[in-house]
Design goal:
With 193 residues, the protein is mainly alpha-helical. It has two domains: 1-62; 65-193. The chain is built from nine helices and no strands. Helix 1 runs antiparallel to helix 4 (34-61), helix 3 (22-32) packs across helix 4 and helix 7 runs antiparallel to helix 8. The longest helix is centred in the first third of the chain and has 28 residues, at 34-61. It is globular.
Length: 193
């Protein structure tokens, strides 16, 4: 469990600098340069991600079961992750109404993804992994919205084509992940195949 915790600290720690130390971040970038900052940030985040994957895999080998979620929670989680995929792609598809309305759909995607997995999994490692990501996403969304208000950030209005693109790509990616990639990469088939 220690490897998973270290990974979460590294990965979410790097992703939390703007939440807790935005002034320090700006001063450090000014001092060492944007390229050096991005390089250091990327190395730490990647190391954290690798440790999360490794640590979670180790924890799954000897799970500490806290509760056994009802079967229905798996179906709810599948539906919620569909929304998470649409939100994720809304962060990248230009000029869509989802991003125009929600401002930070990627962080909302993490919230929905983490909540869905908390519903459908009941081990200590699951609570640690998904609970930590959910807490981070709540704090990050609040922080990002506060920065937007302070800076007067305006998001371009969405178009029908941009919105449809985000939804279609999100659904297609969800289908691929739910039907094939989740089982191949994670070892769990969401639909029990």
């Amino acid at each position: 469990m220690g490897i998973l915790i270290l990974g979460l600290v590294l990965f979410l720690g790097t992703h939390s600098v703007r939440i807790f130390a935005d002034g320090w971040r700006s001063a450090t970038i000014a001092r060492i340069g944007a390229g050096a900052w991005k390089g250091l940030y990327s190395v730490l985040a990647l190391a954290g991600f690798v440790l999360i994957v490794w640590g979670y895999g180790l924890a799954r080998q000897e799970p500490v079961v806290l509760w056994s979620p009802p079967v229905a929670t798996r179906h709810i989680a599948s539906l919620l992750t569909l929304f998470a995929f649409v939100l994720l792609f809304a962060a990248y598809v230009p000029r869509n109404a989802i991003k125009a309305k929600l401002k930070h759909p990627m962080v909302l995607a993490v919230k929905v993804w983490a909540f869905a997995h908390l519903l459908s999994n009941g081990t200590l490692a699951d609570v640690l992994l998904f609970g930590t990501f959910l807490l981070w996403a709540v704090l990050d969304f609040r922080s990002a919205r506060g920065r937007d208000r302070a800076a007067g950030t305006a998001y371009p209005p969405g178009t029908m084509a941009g919105t449809a693109g985000a939804v279609v790509v999100g659904i297609a990616a969800w289908l691929a992940f739910a039907l094939w990639l989740h089982a191949a990469w994670i070892g769990v088939a969401p639909f029990g195949r």
